[in-house]
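Below is a typical protein record.
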Amino acid sequence: MDQEDAWSEAGLYDSLDPAADDRLGLLRYLTERGATTEQLIEAHRRGALPGVAGELVTQNRTEMVSVADIAGRCGLSISRVMRILLAAGIPAERETEVPADLEMVMSAFEQGAALMGEEAILAFTRVLGSAANNVAEAAIALFFAELGPGSERGGPDELGRARLAEAATTVFTEVPGVLAHLVMDAFERAQRRAQTARSWLGPVPSAADEAEGPTEVVPLGFVDLVGSTAWAQTLPQRDQNLALARFESAAWSSAVLAGGRVIKTIGDAVFFAAPTAEAACRIGLEVCRAAAEDDVLPPARGAVGIGPATPREGDYFGPLVNLLSRLVKAGAPGEVVVTEAVAKDLSPGMWELRSLEPAALRGIDAPVQAFVVDRRSLSD
């Protein structure tokens, strides 16, 4: 039986189909690159035959061994290896095959646990796993949005789509190396910021302080889009996604240029940290201005505060965060409101403040005094 007959018998090819030549070209292309008949049948069943070209780029990139083998090589119990893999976001059972180079993850985990404690390193491993999943999911979402089925550049036929999948996956294989450089650069900046915020020259923390967990005084801010639920219902999904991407991009750029960072996006809101109260105000105002100047986005409003917060897994927690998440609703569209602590920290010559009526906020015991902030014009 020749190859075409085998493909036909497997349901992969029909010589009477108008697109038979296209399918034949695709099957030959994938087979030349190492695809097995079983792999082709499974992909065909899922309606994802062109995607095999991308899978082949990363296939056999490393030796695969069982979880039990990893445990034996590292001198660890199988249950311990499975716990570490689970924290990293890798679902695995005893006989599940995983990349052999995960031995390095086990070694790094043991070193970190010996230094920091096991629970702390498990939490950090979850951060790494979450970051890896987010990078991978973002890459896949980008591919399908720009080159996937139904997109304008999705390829004229199955073979064209396979070549796109192969090219995109090949480009992605460069991401881990790029990410390693970005992580080290971000680590150095975070290290400097943390040493400034939590100086070792201060008093030794008390037992009560240790029980509450480490805190630092940090300027934080929220910016959210006003009426975003109703706004979203008026737009096609793609236009909405592109507009939200511009909103997030404006927040990212403003935060980075001010020496801060976007901590996370929460639906239609952005949560950010800054090195100073003034920098936080600049970020909030710039993001609101970007939304106002966008032809599609609804207006934005913001809230900025400064005070103690607990850093954990790249995020911040505590009363200040809860306060700001509610205070952001106190301003009018386009406005940024600030707490009394921020108002006292700002330079009067550079900023103007307008007091608001003390606001009763859900979950906050006493009314909160806040101020609308804006930069003074050069002519003032």
Observations:
- The chain is about 50% helix and 15% strand.
- The first strand starts at residue 64 and ends at 66.
- The CA atoms of residues 54 and 167 lie 8 Å apart.
